[in-house]
Design a protein that fits this description.
10-stranded mixed beta sheet; alpha/beta; binds pyridoxal-5'-phosphate; 9-stranded mixed beta sheet; globular; single chain; about 850 residues
Length: about 850
């Protein structure tokens, strides 16, 4: 319970309105997760301002508000207890320090790079045998979360076990000064948060601040086997207790045996030996159990009692938690987060568990700074020796797959799957789900692998209870930050869905996914993988460079280059197993010669111009061309044409093209020269002229969920995959007649509020002859004003209240009830949706 008096005393806050409620059941900072009776904290963070959500919090039953100003408090809410403080975050820390000093629990601080939560749980379990113990819940463990958790501290708590995390310098020292720990536990130092803290030694220096803060009559509980933790000894005046597996540790474990039940071990302390057991899995987790025993010793909990508590310790969701999977498979859920060290430990644990088939689903490991690529590759090499199948999810994790494929353990292409969606990751192990299979799932928080685990559970209803990140806040959160405040979001689930719809429509014909121009601006590699994981069998690109880039990233599906590939690119095309489009004798000879040089066949598709007036032989030239082709070095895989008007309301010309193509095919069949793969249809023809599907369709826009034209909408069930966003960079109120932008072409008509957004024509946000027209802010349309610059633009937000720096701006996509489609933008610019999306340039980061 939080009492108003304590709050006012601790923070010096001002009571703004009649204090209706004088006590609160807890703190809440996310209005979506607020429970009635809680105190809502209007916190400003880098990505949002809680003051905007005060109304939502009151609607959910907040009993009070802590805020920095009352501007956004609904006028009719005079009766809600409202405390105004200069800085909400500061006030929260002050409250935490105040309440700890008032209730006086003895504080145990737990820190380290990994294992903190499990250590906290184990320590709390041991101490509970004798004391009334408080612990901070979930991952409320930072400079901001920990004080929130302390809203639940009660005067009856004798000991507070507090997990303390740090992802920046000074955070642990700050937490220690708030909480005044008597006992400090450091689990391990490894490579998490490297991008901010820089080096392992820096991480050790930061975490060790906990030990420095201990009083001389306190106790430091340190991992003796981790040199950087053991090295903290000189940094404290407190008594030292060490734990570990090596001789010399004060509390030591040996003879560890691992089964699906947990680990049995012998415990050595003070010359005596005890038998221990814990349901925890993984040798590295033994350390956490030992830390708990050591903490027990500090508080006079007998060893036998401590061991008894450890024997009944529940496993923690997302930390090597063994779950029942579909068809009797075992799922080793380690999805909370990942560092290279913890991933290796998890792979070792997997290797020790039963099951003839060992499978790992591994995701991006976050925050590795410069060593990102190398660290992922190391994991790939390691995994290759420990699993029969490897599935990766996410961008950085592609390196895990690439390294595993290069390892000489013999994991072949069929055993390594690269995915980007949870559905695809789960589907990649479906055929192995059986009682003989154990599947490790591990990755950083950002890749959200708990969603993969959920799909593999025998009983998905258990997800809420058994998995990490199940609360309302996480359902919405965007866990990957774009590299720039202007970005494109690609919904790969929409891509997967669209591909499956296409399969339904055209099967048994095959699908070639058209990925030219960076997959129409959607990001080629992720779209390629997702399309291939969902039923596409070919990919088509415009240039050899695009094809090679796919090959270099490990895509081994057949690739056709649709545009003119000159003779001098023939060697490279053949080397990379890329199929070429040919339509002249010169090209045929060049590819044949290059193939002979390389002693390797060239794969080609012959292009026919049935009336598009672009590349291709005329229909009557095809038969003589095929008859004259040098057969020895050329493999004629396919024959194709392209329609000029398949997306129009009047299909008569498209039908004429189709008729010419069919006539040619009949002629070729008679001569026994019909190539195995005949294809003609783009997305529009596939929809409007089902007879044009032949052996394969070439779909571009359909895969992206965009309609080919106004006359040819997509059937129900397709979803557009691309959202284009920016952020308000500055808001200014200008007097009448103020010029905006180059050329001063716009002048404010009255007092106007103008917002500047960091996006310009060098992003494909066109300057002229016509502009985008409008964008969305706070779910409302805001017109562009003045000229678009290379990297920035101005919008008029006079009619939209409370627009602030940092607000999200939608350029294509939905916001609230408003939507701007690529088709609407195309109409404003005087072009087609294809051009709008494919012109979004590479400097815009794509996230998914
Ligand atoms: C781009 C392209 C396609 C794909 O067309 P969509 O209308 O996007 O489906 C198909 N075939 C060829 C030859 C192309 O150049």
């Amino acid at each position: 319970m939080i009492y108003l008096d304590d709050l006012l005393q601790a923070t010096g806050g001002r009571l703004q309105h009649g204090a209706n409620a004088t006590q609160f059941s807890g703190f809440a900072f996310d209005s979506r997760q607020l429970e009635p009776g809680q105190l809502f904290l209007a916190v400003k963070t880098a990505t949002g301002d809680g003051h905007d959500y005060i109304g939502a919090a009151l609607a959910k039953g907040a009993a009070g508000i802590v805020c920095e100003h009352c501007d956004t408090l609904p006028a009719n809410n005079q009766r809600v207890t409202t405390i105004v403080v200069p800085d909400v975050q500061e006030a929260l820390s002050d409250y935490a320090a105040h309440i700890l000093r008032k209730y006086r629990p003895r504080v145990v601080g737990v820190t380290g790079s990994s294992g903190k939560t499990t250590a906290k749980e184990a320590i709390a379990a041991v101490l509970r045998s004798r004391y009334n113990v408080f612990k901070n819940y979930g991952s409320y463990n930072g400079r901001y979360g920990l004080p929130i958790a302390l809203g639940k501290l009660e005067p009856t708590h004798q000991i507070a076990v507090l997990e303390m995390a740090s992802d920046s310098f000074g955070e642990i020292a700050r937490l220690a000064s708030i909480t005044q720990p008597e006992v400090g536990v450091v689990t391990t130092i490894n490579r998490t948060h490297l991008s901010v803290l820089g080096t392992l030694n820096n991480i050790a220096s930061e975490k060790g601040r906990l030990i420095e803060a201990l009083p001389f009559n306190g106790a430091a509980i340190l991992n003796a086997d981790d040199p950087r933790v053991a090295g903290m000894v000189p940094r404290t005046q407190a008594r030292i207790i060490t734990f570990g597996l090596k001789r010399g540790a004060d509390v030591r474990a040996a003879d560890i045996k691992l089964t699906t039940e947990g680990m049995s071990f012998s415990l050595h302390y003070d010359g005596k030996k005890f038998k221990g057991f814990t349901p925890l899995l993984g040798r590295h987790q033994i350390y956490l159990a030992l830390a708990a025993v050591a903490a027990g010793l500090v508080f006079d909990v007998p060893l036998e009692t401590a061991l008894d508590a450890l024997g009944r310790l529940p496993r923690v969701p997302g930390r090597l938690n063994l779950l029942a999977g579909k068809n009797g498979a075992l799922i080793l859920d380690d999805t909370f987060n990942a560092s290279p060290e913890a991933t290796i430990a998890a792979l070792d644990t997997l290797a020790e568990l039963p099951g003839a088939n060992k499978v790992a689903i591994l995701g991006d490991m976050p925050d590795l700074g410069d060593i990102e690529k190398e660290a992922h590759r190391q994991i790939g090499h390691y995994a290759a020796t420990r699993v029969q199948r490897l599935v990766t999810k996410g961008e950085a994790a592609q390196q895990i797959a690439a390294a595993a494929l290069q390892h000489d353990s013999g994991l072949g292409q069929h055993a390594v799957h690269v995915t980007f969606t949870s559905d695809d990751a789960a589907a990649a192990v479906e055929d192995l789900l059986s009682p003989d299979t154990t599947i490790l799932v591990k990755g950083g928080a950002g890749v959200r692998l708990e969603q993969v685990v959920e799909r593999l559970l025998a009983n998905p209803q258990q997800a809420k209870k058994q998995l990490v990140r199940q609360d309302a806040g996480w359902q919405k959160v965007r866990s990957i930050q774009p590299a720039r405040p202007t970005w494109v979001e690609i919904d790969l689930e929409a891509i997967a869905n669209n591909v499956r719809r296409l399969v339904d429509i055209v099967s048994p014909a095959k699908i070639m996914a058209i990925l030219k121009a960076d997959a129409y601006g959607h990001g080629m590699i992720k779209v390629a993988r997702t399309a291939l994981n969902n039923g596409v069998s070919w990919v088509g690109v415009a240039t050899l460079g695009e094809a090679i880039s796919l090959r270099k990233q490990g895509v081994d599906a057949p690739i056709l280059v649709l545009s003119y590939m000159p003779a001098w690119q023939a060697h490279e095309a053949i080397n990379y197993n890329v199929s070429a489009t040919i339509f002249t004798h010169e090209l045929a000879r060049a590819f044949s010669q290059a193939a002979a040089d390389l002693n390797k066949k060239a794969f080609v598709h012959v292009k026919v111009d049935t009336g598009m007036g672009r590349l291709g032989l005329l229909p009557h030239e095809v038969l003589p061309f095929l008859e004259s082709l040098p057969q020895e070095w050329l493999k004629i895989e396919g024959l194709y044409t392209h329609f000029a008007t398949a997306d129009e309301a009047d299909l008569s010309y498209a039908r004429e093209q189709l008729r010419r193509f069919q006539a040619l095919l009949a002629q070729l069949a008679q001569a026994g020269l019909r190539p195995p793969l005949v294809h003609a249809a783009n997305t529009a023809a596939m929809l409007n002229l089902p007879e044009s599907r032949f052996d394969m369709v070439r779909s571009g826009v359909g895969i992206y969920g965009l309609p080919p034209s106004d006359e040819t909408p997509l059937p129900p069930g397709f979803r557009s995959a691309l959202t284009f966003k920016s952020t308000v960079g500055q808001v200014k109120t200008l007097p009448p007649d103020s010029p905006i932008g180059y050329g001063a072409t716009y002048r404010t008509k009255g007092v106007e509020t103008i917002a500047i957004i960091p996006v310009g024509y060098a992003d494909g946000f066109r300057r002229g002859p016509r502009t985008w027209g409008e964008v969305l802010v706070k779910g409302k349309r805001a017109p562009l004003v003045g000229r678009v610059s290379m990297d920035q633009s101005a919008i008029n937000v006079t009619h939209i209240p409370n627009v602030r720096q940092g607000d999200e701006v939608v350029l294509i996509g939905q916001q609230g009830d408003e939507i701007i489609t690529a088709e609407e933008v195309a109409a404003n610019l005087g072009t087609i949706n294809y051009e709008v999306v494919s012109e979004l340039l590479a400097r815009i980061p794509r996230i998914s």
